[in-house]
């Protein structure tokens, strides 16, 4: 195994899940800045911008005393369903690289605090895929929920081989690597569970990060499950599309865990959603878990996702779980966009209760 071994979502402190290359995650270019705009920092805050802010945006951002806001740069900003869509970059302490995330602030954020739904994308994705393809902003605007979509890995970490395979490296990690040197920069679990919420809270005070839920797709689906199961006090609900649910029992998971965590199979179970449910479940504070899976998903039929293992574990532990097998749907964002409103609404019900 050369370079950064095969992919698994090792969420900066724990593995989130691993999935194969997905054409639906081909990155698209970020929104271009308006003509005539230039990078500048506002005299009223420490959030730098590379494009002019839309009218009213400053009212929902932190002032110069906002801590982490001082390190945040707004790369692009646009109106969306009456709210604001902002692409942000900051220097991460967890990964020691610049990290990108996109935040959607619903109209309600202009006048009151709103809860937040984090979305973790799949292998080879960036923060753009969910934001541009899932179509979640409409229902998030209606329900008054902020969306935060982080990138899936550090960029420019300088780890040998990180760009050489889609299975591990760029766009493929949600865990804390137990390695030394530059490889420790792939600490996405700690980034997602600790640093990102702190940056969002300091930069966007209208987002109440104490009221948070998490959702994800594929590698990110497993990441969402692992993050929630390891931190049930931080999240009010969790859902997933096409998640890798039992990686210690599938070929991808075994290969990925070997590369990230070595041969200690006991350590693998720390980042396996099914094993965590069996060991630590149930998790009453998370409510009912929602899992959507397409019946025409090639990775399902290949035995790589194993959702039935997690469903059985939930049954054994008394954890409410709804598994929906969606006939004819595959692993793509066409599948996600069809059912994303169900997921956002479920999370909104929990967050706004």
Task: Kindly list the characteristics that best describe this protein.
353 residues, alpha/beta, Rossmann fold, eleven-stranded mixed sheet, 10 helices, globular, disordered N terminus
Account of the protein in words:
- It is a single chain.
- This protein has 353 residues and is an alpha/beta fold.
- 28% of the residues lie in helices and 19% in strands.
- It contains ten helices and eleven strands.
- An eleven-stranded mixed β-sheet has the order 1-2-3-4-5-7-6-8-9-10-11, with helices on both faces.
- Helix 4 links the parallel strand 8 and strand 9 (238-241).
- The longest helix has 19 residues, at 333-351.
- The radius of gyration is 19 Å and the shape is globular.
- The protein starts with 39 loop residues before the first strand and ends with a helix.
The rounded distance between the terminal residues' Cα atoms is: 48 Å
Poorly predicted ranges? 1-24, 26-46, 50-56, 63-68, 158-183
Number of separate strands: 11
**How are the strands of the biggest sheet laid out side by side?**
1-2-3-4-5-7-6-8-9-10-11
> What fraction, in percent, of the residue positions are helical?
25-40%
The CATH superfamily is Alpha/Beta hydrolase fold, catalytic domain
Proportion of beta-strand residues: 15-25%
**Structural class assignment:** alpha/beta
Please count the helical segments.
Answer: 10
Query: Per CATH, which architecture?
Result: 3-Layer(aba) Sandwich
Number of domains: 1
Shape: globular
Broad CATH class = Alpha Beta
Examine the coordinates and then state which fold CATH places here, giving the name of the CATH topology: Rossmann fold
Mean pLDDT: 80
SSE order, one letter for each helix or strand? EEEEEEHHEHEHEHHHEHHEH
Radius of gyration: 19 Å
